[in-house]
Amino acid sequence: MPKTRRTIESSLFESLLVIILAGLVGPLIAAGPRPIVPAVVGELAAGIVLGRTGAGVIDPSTPTNAFLYSIGFAMLMLVAGSHVRLEGRLSSGLRTAAIAFVIVLAAAIPTGLAVGVLLAPSAPPALFPILLAGSSAAVAFPILQERGLLGPAVVLLLAWIPLADAVTVLVMPLTLIGTEQIPRALAGDTAIVALTAAALLAGVRIERAGWALKLRDLSQSRGWALQLRLTLLILIALTLVATQTGGSTLLAGFGAGLVLSRLRTPERLGLQLSGIAEGFFVPAFFVLLGAELDFRALAQDPRAILLAVVMAAAAIAIHVGAALFVAPAPRAPFGLAASAQLGLPAAAASLGLATGHLSAAVAAGIVAAGCITVLPASLGTRRLADALQAGTGGSAVAAPLPEPETT
Questions:
Q1: Residue 152 zone, left/alpha/beta (φ > 0; ψ -120 to 50; rest)
Q2: How far is it, in rounded angstroms, from Cα 176 to Cα 202?
Q3: Exposed/middle/buried for 109, CB within 10 Å: 0-12, 13-18, 19+?
Q4: Could you give the 3-state DSSP secondary structure of residue 283?
Q5: Contact status, residue 252 vs residue 392, Cβ threshold 8 Å
């Protein structure tokens, strides 16, 4: 028995070692003075090389790696939600974002139906308009953060991307799961929203209470990290609700981040979360996401390759077109940044393969299309960052959000 335990522990640490080393590829390729490729691309590429498509060194299906994948995505969305401090500008941002999303959806419905019928006739045609209309907060927010674009200047993106991501994540499974599972999933999302709202109200009431301030001071002086523990408690509780009810992990993580944002957490807690999330769990998520993909199936189906190219081009064109109507100058980079769609295609491919609604080639083509959109999104954020630095971006460029209050 001890020998078996040592064998399991050895295998576990070997897997963790490989994942951590693979995660270092991202910062290495993004270490230049003007990096075009963001760190997430390097982490994804490392996972692809070491996963199912490449050497097969990383097995994303093991229980440990599956847990790392799930908690990494939840932590990523927590960090993303914690950056949304837009009390004074949120309403206008949401209105403009809603208009942009409606424009995108109006163009995506006929385009997506045509793409599905012509290039993937065996797949559910309703899936493709949803994919084209989506944005991926899991990919776009790290890029925005890396470029220093998380301030009021890009309020449109900070509202547009989560809105599109949340709506499409809610609707996409309806095209790939049985109708009997839909009410349960919607009930789970409703429960997550309700619990998030309750946590926000409770946090506002107790954050300035005398006993709460005393505990916070004791935690800081004695190294208890109570706020970090409470943050993780909220995150895990909401994620547990999502997993048990079929709700969205995206909503769970983002909701926990909104709680932190509303309470204006101290800078010390932000550094602690950054160390845990961005130092380990988030890079592990992107490495395991890359390891899960199998691009070999594309080589066996030329139509799937065409599907990937057409979907990527259509998604980029639709989002840029919407940005030309609603975004401030420079308009096109907003659309490019919003077109990153890797998270939703990956989820659709995984669910479609599990339910048998997608072939391996079509699933790989869908994910490949999402991967293609990452580079234009990176270029768009690079242009926005250049405008910020040069001060020539008009209303699209402004100083970043103020730092959280310190204790």
A1: alpha
A2: 37
A3: middle
A4: helix
A5: no
Pairwise CA distance, residues 396 & 355, whole Å: 43
Task: Classify residue 149 as exposed, middle or buried by CB count within 10 Å of its CB (0-12, 13-18, 19+).
Answer: buried
Query: What is the residue type of 261?
Result: S
- What would the 3-class secondary structure string for 202-241 be? HHHHHCCCHHHHHHHHHHHHHCCCHHHHHHHHHHHHHHHH
The candidate with the shortest Cα–Cα distance to 74, out of 191, 212, 247, 208, is 247
Q: Are 257 and 231 in contact (CB under 8 A)?
A: no
The conformation of residue 279, written as its DSSP 8-state character, comes to: I
Q: What are 155-209's pLDDT values in tens digits?
A: 788 888 888 887 887 788 778 766 666 677 778 878 888 888 888 787 777 766 7
How far apart (Å, rounded) are the C-alpha atoms in residues 49 and 57?
9
H-only helix segments in 125-209: 127-133, 137-147, 155-171, 182-206
By residue count, the chain amounts to 407
Q: Please count the helices (runs of H) and the strands (runs of E) in the chain.
A: 18, 0
| Three-class SS state of 397 | coil
Q: What token pair was written down for 104?
A: 């995108």
b/e map 253-288, b = 16+ CB within 10 Å: bbbbbbbbbbbebbebbbebbeebbbebbbbbbbbb
The amino acid present at 379, given as its one-letter code, is L
User: Which structure tokens are listed for 407?
Assistant: 């204790």
Rg (CA), the chain: 21
Please say if the pLDDT value at position 100 is more than 90: yes
Tell me the helix, strand and coil percentages in the chain, rounded to 5: 80, 0, 20
pTM over 0.85: no
What backbone phi and psi angles, to 5 degrees, belong to 128? -75, -35
Who's near 182: CB < 8 A, 6+ residues apart? 173, 174
Please give the Cα distance from 368 to 328 (Å, whole number). Answer: 30
CA dihedral 137, 138, 139, 144 (to 10 degrees): 60
User: Is the omega angle on the peptide bond into residue 402 within 30 degrees of 0, that is, cis?
Assistant: no
CATH topology of domain 60-391: Na+/H+ antiporter like fold (1.20.1530)
In Å, the largest CA–CA distance within the chain is 67
Kindly tell me if the per-residue pLDDT of 405 is higher than 60: no
